[in-house]
TrEMBL record:
Boundaries of every SIS domain copy: 125-263
Entry keyword annotation includes DNA-binding: yes
CDD domains recorded: SIS_RpiR (cd05013)
Signal sequence interval, chain numbering: none
Keywords recorded for this protein, A-Z: DNA-binding, Transcription, Transcription regulation
Name listed for the protein in its UniProt record: MurR/RpiR family transcriptional regulator
Species this chain originates from: Caproicibacterium amylolyticum
One record GO biological process: carbohydrate derivative metabolic process
Molecular function per GO: carbohydrate derivative binding; DNA binding; DNA-binding transcription factor activity
Classification via PROSITE patterns: HTH_RPIR, SIS
InterPro entries: Homeodomain-like_sf (IPR009057), HTH_RpiR (IPR000281), RpiR-like (IPR047640), RpiR-like_SIS (IPR035472), SIS_dom (IPR001347), SIS_dom_sf (IPR046348), WH-like_DNA-bd_sf (IPR036388)
Location of the HTH rpiR-type domain: 3-79
Pfam family, one: SIS
Classification lineage: Bacteria, Bacillati, Bacillota, Clostridia, Eubacteriales
Gene3D superfamilies, per database record: Glucose-6-phosphate isomerase like protein, domain 1 (3.40.50.10490), Winged helix-like DNA-binding domain superfamily/Winged helix DNA-binding domain (1.10.10.10)
């Protein structure tokens, strides 16, 4: 269990009321279940009132029960197996509409990310990218999609960008072999954290490169090697990780880079548009039929 949570409970155990001791003991033994229980349900489970649960959370140093619950969720997400994730998801959604539940969860994650991430680190990371010689981007497992997305747009904006293929540790180090203090490495990983990504960030840090971690908490294995930690909340959605907040953060990163380079990018994008037109990269859509149908309905 989280060291802070364990320590606080043990330090306060002697001062707890009978009801608070029941809560404390249940958390110590079943923290993986408590992490996804409401205050009301936890109170019912151990035989105390919801208000007693809320007071317990503040007693051990949290602003309220939601903060205590999030601390436990973040602590266990990297340890849950896929089977356990499915069990958690079934329990959380219950009889609610699945689509609404997932979309509401994602909306809440983005909101919490806005309150959580460091604006200072964000803009310092942008400056580091813009002044670098080369940008390396790495994301393993489910985060490969995020890395590929970021790499695609950075490739349009910057002169030298490499999407690091994370198939094996040996291949990662081979691709990073020429990295130096003039370079930037952007590593992306969320629970369950990729060991390969963490080792790559450590290697880049040891080589003197600027390291940017896009991850979920300051205690993430990637964040400990980062000069700039861009923190986005994520959550469990059955067998998948909810990565809408990291993607939104990456969107903001790309938009900021493009606006910072706005004056120098006009010619580049004009040339790209001409190339796309000449080689028929994009399918042209004829809206005539759709417009005719709308006019007929009117």
């Amino acid at each position: 269990m989280n060291d802070f949570l364990t320590t606080r409970i043990q330090e306060k155990m002697g001062t707890f009321s009978k009801g608070q001791r029941l809560i404390a003991n249940y958390i110590m033994e079943h923290y993986d279940k408590v992490a996804f229980m409401t205050a009301s349900r936890l109170g019912t489970t151990v035989g105390v009132s919801e208000s007693t649960v809320v007071r317990f959370a503040t007693e051990i140093g949290y602003a309220g029960y939601p903060e205590l619950q999030r601390a436990m969720q973040e602590m266990i997400r990297s340890k849950l197996t896929i089977v356990q994730r499915m069990e958690v998801t079934r329990e959380r959604i219950g009889q609610n509409d699945i689509l609404d539940a997932v979309l509401n969860q994602d909306s809440d994650i983005i909101r919490r990310t806005m309150e959580y991430t460091s604006h200072q680190d964000f803009y310092m990371a942008v400056d580091a990218i813009l002044t670098s010689r080369k940008v390396y981007i790495l994301g393993a497992r489910s985060c490969q999609a995020l890395a590929s997305f970021l790499s695609y747009y950075c490739g349009l904006l910057l002169e030298d960008v490499m999407l690091v293929q994370a198939t094996s540790e040996a291949e990662i180090f081979q691709q990073l072999i020429h990295i130096n203090a003039q370079d930037v490495v952007i590593g992306i990983s969320f629970p369950r954290y990729s060991r390969k990504a963490a080792k790559a960030m450590q290697f880049a840090h040891n080589c003197g490169a600027k390291v940017i971690a896009i991850t979920d908490t300051a205690v993430s294995p990637l964040a400990q090697y980062a000069d700039y930690a861009l923190l986005a909340r994520s959550d469990i959605a059955a067998i998948v990780d909810s990565l809408v907040a990291p993607l939104s953060l990456i969107d903001a990163l790309i938009v900021t880079l493009s606006l910072k380079k706005e004056n120098s990018m006009d010619k580049t994008f004009d040339r790209l548009e001409n190339i796309w037109e000449e080689y028929h990269v994009y399918e042209k859509v004829d809206n005539t039929a759709e417009d005719d149908a709308k006019n007929a309905d009117a």
